[in-house]
Amino acid sequence: MKSMIRDISLAPQGHDKINWVKNFMPVLGTINEEFSKSKPFAGKKMVITMHLEAKTAYLGLVFKNAGAEVVVTGSNPLSTQDDVAAALVEDGVTVFAWYDCTNEEYDVFLNKALDTKPDMIVDDGGDLVSLLHSKRAELAANIIGGSEETTTGVIRLKALEAEGKLKFPMIAANDAYCKYLFDNRYGTGQSTWDGIMRTTNLVIAGKNVVIAGYGWCGKGAAMRAKGLGASVIITEIDPVKAIEAVFDGFRVMPMQEAAKVGDIFLTLTGCNDIIRKEHFAVMKNGAMMANAGHFDVEINKVELNEVSISTRSVRKNIEEFVQSDNRKLYLLAEGRLVNLAAGDGHPAEIMDLSFAVQFFSALHILNNHKNMGAHVCLMPNEINQKIAAIKLASLGLSIDELSVAQSSYLSQS
Ligand code: NAI
């Protein structure tokens, strides 16, 4: 099937980006070497719906080298990089994605990908799975299973499963140790600040940074904001997470209080309406807002538009909202995930782990789907150990091994 991309002539720059990240993804490199010989996915069609940048492209190529027929679409209108999409097409992967697509185009891309009648899927956020359980439900019978990349997608999958509607096994790749401990925490921790800093070209030190949500992503973003010299405030709804933030050394308060003092607001909750009109009303002149949660629902853009007397784009990925008392509030990257919409996403070394989880999850589905049932499952834990061991070796690090005597001590009752 013919790809739909912006411009094939951008491919050389895309190849450069993919070749660069390959250097820093040794686990995926090891997988590529091993499975391009055995080609376990031969004869299988796989649709990958993910943020289409260089690391994702490399994952697509690894699946292709392992025998799969691969189709890639983006998982967010602003996170596709057109040069990377072009390079993937040159490398023989079918792509339906371009940067800044409309919502209608986004739907067309997902549907085109499904028209190829995939056997397996890799989803990020749950839009593809949702389509396979609604308008394209006729294709679900063909799917042997798949995996889901992010927290929000896993929540949606579990809701489908609880309603008894899930039609094929899905591995919650997000919930593997080698994913959330590193990707959500350290990946988001670094890449959100990269996105915010390259977009604003401003200093973080000395600013009051308000982080909504102290889950895995929030913890990473707070830790890195502190390292950059910010004074960090956490907002939460879970008392345990809130007390954890206190003992990690952060101030905790409701958003209504934080709204008055914040210079930069970052939402990472997976929930909607975190920053709303009552918060815009008390924010300081010049306050900046960004989101790194999966959907652009955490900062209420409808209300922000309603309470503003004028808006304009003041710099790429920065929109100014003037309030009736002349205060100016700024929204970065349309409230979409700032690290991907206004940056390159997580560092390659981190995605090396996440995408190894994706590969082994798909392999597990391939070999075990008949016995898995239509459930949301975890990747077997021994694969976490295997991935981490390859990563350690690639870093030139080794660790101790239990002696026989230690093993027997630990197994005593
Ligand atoms: P998590 O479940 O570990 O943490 C979410 C936290 O937000 C929880 O502590 C929860 O109590 C809190 N929360 C929920 N509703 C809230 C509200 N109304 N006000 C304040 N706090 C609230 O989830 P995780 O893994 O940190 O993911 C968060 C979001 O980030 C999800 O949408 C996920 O899909 C997305 N994500 C984005 C990435 C990126 O690259 N930008 C990478 C990984 C995940």
Automatic annotation (TrEMBL):
It holds the Pfam family AdoHcyase_NAD. GO terms for biological process: one-carbon metabolic process; S-adenosylmethionine cycle. Binds 1 NAD(+) per subunit. It catalyses: S-adenosyl-L-homocysteine + H2O = L-homocysteine + adenosine. The keyword Hydrolase applies. It comes from Propionispira arboris. This is Adenosylhomocysteinase. Keywords: Hydrolase, NAD, One-carbon metabolism.
